[in-house]
Design brief:
This protein is of the alpha+beta class and about 350 residues long. It has a domain of about 80 residues. It has twelve helices and nine strands. Strands 1-2-3-7-8-9 form a six-stranded mixed sheet, with helices on both faces. It has a three-stranded antiparallel sheet with strand order 4-6-5, with helices on one face. A hairpin with an 8-residue loop joins strand 8 and strand 9. It is globular. The two termini are about 40 Å apart.
Length: about 350
């Protein structure tokens, strides 16, 4: 780092002080060789700027438990994509915490068993639990192929198209088989194009067989992950959230400890528009589900502000739902909670 030690991203640099292999340090370095007269402007990297803003709000608020989160933050290693992705679950907690801090809502990072964030300065009134779901799909497959091809010195521009819609998820065994076609284990030259089924049909959800066509060339690669508006993908994702997060035994216990909102962070997955979230999840609730609401959250590496779409538990105590919606009303990004309670359509 050759920039000023006092004025550029000071909070982030403090959190990284003394480290040499943290994932975010990857963004302090140029990806290609620069002219000797050109200085790499790491202090203007939008990913680092978004993290700086997140940490700055937290440092100003100084919530209980921030020190533990800072120590946890410093344990991550790997200046590569895998290292950056490993940081995402913690970054989700920090993002939500920074929004609460910005709005002046008292909260604590939980330092013991229970939900991730406790609302209230001393006495907990409500809580927020954050769980991440990132099904391995086209983006993951594309990255695997590009890395492997590049390591072998082969053309590594990967283009993937789908028919009729992208897969919700691609099983690891299927990904391995596809990669093997392009990168045989014996080191021989593999195929440069392939059409195959990436995910089988799920008739109960209205999802057909998902075919992928993969091409490798020296040109610029593109991967299309978009699904049609109101595609069955979101129902499949919502059912995954219900099965593996909402009804996870440990999280069910957490939900019973105090009135809690569950945030399912779907960042990094190949998903359709989350504006369809409440329409899908509203039909999934069961009488014994403990959370007051479930939100689908996505965020970009380059922007601290997430997108949140809520579904309210119709079996929960509605007084508690109203109270937590009122408490979180001033929090940036959480307006959809109040909108759902009032029966308003989601703001575009």
């Amino acid at each position: 780092m050759t920039r000023s030690d006092t004025e550029d991203l000071p909070t982030l640099r403090q959190w990284l002080d003394g480290l040499d292999d943290h994932p975010l340090l990857w963004f302090f370095e140029p990806r290609r060789e620069l002219h000797p007269m050109v200085e790499y402007a790491w202090w203007r990297n939008p990913i680092l700027m978004a993290v700086e803003e997140t940490l700055l709000h937290l440092e100003r608020a100084q919530p209980v438990g921030l020190g533990k989160k800072r120590r946890e933050f410093r344990t991550f290693k790997g200046k590569n994509n895998d290292g950056v992705e490993s940081l995402d679950p913690l970054r989700s907690e920090l993002i939500v915490g920074s929004l609460l801090a910005e709005a002046g809502v008292p909260f604590r990072f939980n330092t013991s068993a229970g939900p991730d964030i406790l609302l209230g300065a001393a006495v907990t009134s409500f809580a927020i639990e954050i769980g991440m779901r990132r099904p391995k799909s086209l983006s993951e497959l594309s990255r695997r192929l590009m890395r492997g091809l590049k390591q072998r010195g082969l053309p590594h521009a990967v283009s993937i198209s789908t028919d009729p819609i992208p897969p919700v998820a691609i099983r690891t065994a299927v990904q391995d088989a596809i990669v093997e076609q392009f990168l045989p284990a014996d080191g021989s030259r593999g195929v440069t194009s392939l059409r195959t089924i990436a995910a089988p049909a799920r008739p109960e959800l209205g999802i057909p067989d998902s075919w992928v066509t993969i091409r490798v060339s020296n040109d610029r690669g593109t991967t299309s992950t978009e699904a049609p508006w109101k595609s069955p993908h979101m129902k499949a994702v919502a059912q995954e959230v219900a099965k593996n997060i909402l009804r996870d035994n440990r999280k069910q216990t957490q939900a019973k400890s105090c009135p809690t909102i569950l945030i399912a962070d779907l960042t990094g997955g190949d998903l359709p528009d989350t504006r369809y979230w409440n329409d899908v999840f509203d039909s999934i609730w069961q009488p014994d589900d403990g959370y007051l609401a479930v939100a689908a959250m996505t965020w970009l590496n380059t922007n601290r502000m997430p997108t949140l779409a809520f579904s309210l538990n119709p079996f929960a105590d509605q007084g508690s739902v109203r109270d937590v919606a009122s408490l979180l009303e001033p929090v940036p990004g959480f307006h959809d909670l109040g909108d759902r309670l009032a029966g308003r359509k989601r703001r575009q």
